[in-house]
Amino acid sequence: MALIEIQTQINADLKTCFDLARNIDLHKESLKHTGEMPIAGKTTGLLEKGEWVSWEAKHFGFVQHLTSKITEFDAPNCFVDEMVLGIFKSFRHEHIFQKKGDKTIMIDRFHFESPLGFLGKIANVLFLKRYMKNLLLTRNTYLKEQAESI
What we know:
The chain has a single domain (2-148), classed as START domain (Alpha-D-Glucose-1,6-Bisphosphate, Chain A, domain 4), CATH 3.30.530.20. Helix content is 31%, strand content 43%. The protein has three helices and seven strands. Strand 3 (52-59) and strand 4 (62-74) form a beta hairpin. The longest helix is centred in the last third of the chain and has 32 residues, at 117-148. The protein is globular and about 45 Å long.
């Protein structure tokens, strides 16, 4: 299983960062370049424990669908979303928020397993891990900008 871990320092309070990270509308805006759209489940607002959302987006030139569910929730410290249906064999995305003075450290731990066994592991090394990290960084930059402008 591959792991991507990113830490983002944000000049905003914990609750603001936590709420923006689980905001479907912000997620959609942050990844607008992929055409990411919520198409089923909860499609707007803030995700809560047990809720799910299905996304449609274009990655690698193909329209893809992915459904994830919020499986753990401890406001405003962390939440976890896990893939229920999609192209990955599995993924688990831990969103962790820590207060550091008047700032928030947002930690993303994205665990994923590619399909196709050995071929999937090669894809991870060649391009998939880098691609996923760049998506997370793009999203985090947008979230940081929004949080710091409030």
